[in-house]
Give the backbone structure.
Amino acid sequence: MSTYTLSEIRQGSQGDIAYYDVYPEKHKLVIDIHHHYRPSRNFVETLLKDMDEAGVHKVCLFSSPPQSYSDTEDNDWKRIFKDYEDKIIGFGSITPGRPNNSFELVDLYYSRGFRGLKFIRPTRRYDHDDFLVYYERAEKYGMPVLFHTGVVARRSVTESEDVSSAYMRPVYLDRIARLYPKLKIIAAHMGDPWFGEAFNTSQKNPLLWLDISGKGIWLKAKAIREHLWIRLRPEKLVFGLDEPSSQYKRLIYTWDTLFYEMGLDQKTRDMIFGETAARILG
Ligand SMILES: [Zn+2]
């Protein structure tokens, strides 16, 4: 029925057109800000192929922490830095306070070509005095830092391990953000299940974003819908996968549809799926 062009609608000159009269278009830039290296045959080739098929342009790929970094993985990183730096951005993983995870690791990762850092499974809360030296160095190098926030998976249900999800609460990023005002921080999984805490902390700190990666997307979407425009603006959300690359299509379609149903327009969804991440990564 409508005789308006798409650009007229986008410019807002036709206020009587409902958002759902404009169907989602392909995003011009898609960046996955949360992806784990998994030691397996053809990992890199499979990742690049799945990205291509799903229209994903760039990925932030997390190394294993030093205690599980293998020779196979090392060879893959060498190839990535040599041949695929335009598509794969390396993030070096650090488990703060654990053996072989001293602050010099930040310098080592930076000199090898890693452009960001991923933090997980600390021995104390993320904002403990002993760990500040990691963040100070990251700020100096201009490396964005992504923290696992929320309850973390167990690696074994039979072996004992000293890990507490409570050390990874999103509010512990607050002190870090205030101490290092140039540091770009991403709280992974929106702090699942501490969504309100993650949104509120992000709202107070201009360079603290939230990735929507991980499971439980029904609850994540519900939390976004509930807090949107009160404690959360869509500028603070970034797309991440945290699943094998075979899941790109499913999760991009699902999230894009959920955001569309919340009334977020194309421009806003373009930000979430790539443009905001491009600014974080420079
Ligand atoms: Zn993850």
